[in-house]
Design brief:
138 residues, single chain, 38% strand, 4 helices, 5-stranded antiparallel β-sheet
């Protein structure tokens, strides 16, 4: 298995970052022709999704996340942990922390509009984030 870490610096807003190119470049560097690519984010207030990376889809996803877990609600986490990001923990849990994608013929088996998108749901402060990409060759 081959692994890399991708480091990202995020701002104080919900962020959507397309990491597809970094993952494709890693597969090309390692010359993997067949296998599985697993992408995992090490943070509870973030997620990894496969989605169309365009302004409308991003705005729709952001609106859906605001509806599901609005930042201005009373969250037990905010009281018990003396924190302000309970909404971000709920959003991250719903989105999920990993995706696995087949590698076929040296390429990710993504659909035409699918991108690998990192979402940071914690809009309370800038953060350093780590994504782990693992390649399991067949």
């Amino acid at each position: 298995m081959k692994t890399i870490k991708i480091g990202l610096s995020t701002k104080t807003e919900v962020e959507f970052i397309d990491i597809t190119k970094e993952v494709r470049d890693f597969i090309a560097r390692e010359n993997i022709s067949s296998g599985i690519c697993h992408i995992f984010v090490q943070h509870t207030t973030c997620g990894i999704v496969l989605m169309e990376y365009e302004a409308g889809a991003i705005a729709d996803m952001e609106a859906a996340l605001r509806k599901i877990a609005p930042p201005d609600k009373n969250y037990c986490h905010n009281t018990l942990a003396c924190d302000r990001n309970g909404h971000a923990h709920i959003r991250g849990a719903i989105i999920g922390s990993s995706v696995s994608i087949p590698i076929i013929g040296g390429s990710l088996a993504l659909g035409i509009y699918q991108s690998i998108v990192f979402i940071d749901c914690d809009d309370t402060q800038p953060r350093e984030r780590t994504i782990i990409v693992s390649l399991l060759e067949r």
